Amino acid sequence: MATHPGPLTAAPPAIRTSRLVRRFGEREVLREIDLTVGAGEFTALLGRSGSGKSTLLRALSGLDHGVRGSGELAVPERVSLSFQDSRLLPWLRVLDNVVLGLGGRRAEDRGREALAEVGLAGRERSWPHELSGGEQQRAALARALVREPELLLADEPFGALDALTRIKMHGLLRELYERHRPAVLLVTHDVDEAVELADRVLVLEEGRIAVDLAVDLPTPRSRRAPRFQEYRDRLLTALGVHPEPVPSEKNDA
Amino acid sequence: MSETLSRARTATAPPGTPGAPPRERADRPAPTGSGAAPAESARQGHRPRRLGPGRAVPFGRLIGPVLLVAVWWLSSALGYLDPRILSGPGTVLATASDLVSTGRLQDNALVSLQRAALGLLFGVLAGVLLAVVAGLSRSGEYLVDGPLQIKRAIPSLALLPLLILWLGIGEQMKVTVIALGVAVNVYINTYAALTGIDGRHVQLAESLRLGRWTFLRKVVAPGALPGFFVGLRLGVTSAFLGLIVVEQVNATSGIGYMMFQAQQYAQSDVIIVGLVAYGIFGYASDALVRIIERRALSWRHTLAR
Ligand SMILES: Nc1ncnc2c1ncn2[C@@H]1O[C@H](COP(=O)(O)OP(=O)(O)O)[C@@H](O)[C@H]1O
Ligand SMILES: [Mg+2]
């Protein structure tokens, strides 16, 4: 389990796009994107603010009605999407949020299990605002997982969390990934987060995928490892930032 | 802090704006105490001046009314008040118990309450129905919203002559006038709340592939509920306003009728009993709505603790 199995499984890919275009007015935000993400592959998507990461995710999740564009797009049946804010409905208790729209008699039990998995056992009857920011995000993760997604799309899910909570969430996400093995497309603006969590990192730039880098490091990954730094520097350079020579922790924040 | 916020929300939400759902910052746990106070008090000597009002005294709100009654009592006891202009509190109390023992007060109050309740019932039903039609479908919006926004500009009471022409001066007209005012208030606020549903919640519902019915039940309805309650409270107020007016139009029963008659015989004590009865109705019904609101929006009210 330590090393990533790679897309050598016979399962069909979790994402396949071909010449995917999305435009707002005259501006082409996504320009003919050809992307394949294998089943069970953990991929991170980096890119400057405004580079179209969210646009791509919305297209993949089918939530971009009214946005003009073209191209082909194939995703699995069960796709979960998580947002930067936990987006729990404030008038539903945590468990009801997790099982929202979930059919079947066992829905509640499955919701409880999912909550236990993210460390929120016992908080089923809480209101969302009674949870801390990190707990809210974990509840959102439970809501995404309880649907047993083949593909998890996450748009900066840790963006609003404090540094300590983020570190914990990184561990949790990776752990849940190892256990359930959905394909993951994690949007982030944090290079360290991408290298730490993902087995493949993409950089979106000018509406195209400018970098497609496989991260071949054993997990759990240490940010101090020299090879970690190598990946990090390559990605920072690709993003147009000159990497600092001394390893710094301030990117965690 | 959260307490002031939540009070401001319920007290000052203007008609037409749905009570915006409280935005919880995702990156911060719910506030538990006064935010910056400890840090400030650690700085010795130069403490910032308190700008808000001071601490609340228990039952402090009662001081004003009690003082008013005391002045009234005193001036009538000292003979400054002509009983034909304003009877003293003693006389009013005696008259009230008289009216109760003959059953006149209860009978009239019952008639008045029935009118208000029927008007409220029909008004709320109509208001919600129209808001749902206009809020959930485009064609409904085009058909319903325009006329109701126009109606909003015309006070219900201005329609009185027309309604009397159409419906006569019976109960039907009275209940209709009340219901109209209620319906407009409920409609405006519920409709605004329905169309103002948080787009992020809609996006969530779509990403979870909620069916239309689940979406309406779990996302739209609870999201619009605060707005509905704003409308309901305004509606209750308008119901009593309407009641007072219609009871002065050729009524033969009701609190308003009782007061109108008393005016002709210069019985200021009876008029005051009627006023107090109206006041109690208004206050009690508003309190009732607030209790219902508190229960229905309990997820919100835990914020204020
Ligand atoms: N609904 C929209 N209407 C018009 N322009 C939009 C809309 N959504 C996004 N854009 C534009 O598309 C570009 C990419 O946005 P987005 O995908 O949100 O970027 P990212 O998530 O990478 O920060 C931005 O320049 C943004 O202004
Ligand atoms: Mg974005």
Describe it for me?
The complex is a heterodimer of chains A (253) and B (305). Chain A is of the alpha/beta class. Chain A is built from seven helices and nine strands. In chain A, strands 5-6-7-3-8-9 form a six-stranded mixed beta sheet, with helices on both faces. Chain B has helices at 2-12, 37-42, 63-77, 89-101, 104-136, 138-153, 160-167, 171-195, 199-207, 212-246, 255-264, 268-296, 298-301. In chain B, α4 packs across α12 (268-296), α5 (104-136) packs across α6 (138-153) and α10 (212-246) runs antiparallel to α12 (268-296). The model of chain B is unreliable at 1-42 (pLDDT under 50). Classes of the chains: A alpha/beta (253), B mainly alpha (305). The interface between A and B is medium-sized, with 29 and 31 residues. Adenosine-5'-diphosphate binds next to α1 of chain A. The site of adenosine-5'-diphosphate has 10 residues of chain A, from α1.
Topology of this protein?
The complex is a heterodimer of chains A (253) and B (305).
Chain A: E1 15-24, E2 27-37, E3 42-47, H1 53-60, E4 68-74, E5 79-82, H2 94-98, H3 107-117, H4 133-145, E6 151-155, H5 163-180, E7 183-187, H6 191-197, E8 200-205, E9 208-214, H7 226-238
Parallel strand pairs in A: 3-7, 3-8, 5-6, 6-7
Antiparallel strand pairs in A: 1-2, 1-4, 8-9
Chain B: H1 2-12, H2 37-42, H3 63-77, H4 89-101, H5 104-136, H6 138-153, H7 160-167, H8 171-195, H9 199-207, H10 212-246, H11 255-264, H12 268-296, H13 298-301
Outline of this structure?
The complex is a heterodimer of chains A (253) and B (305). In chain A, 30% of the residues lie in helices and 24% in strands.
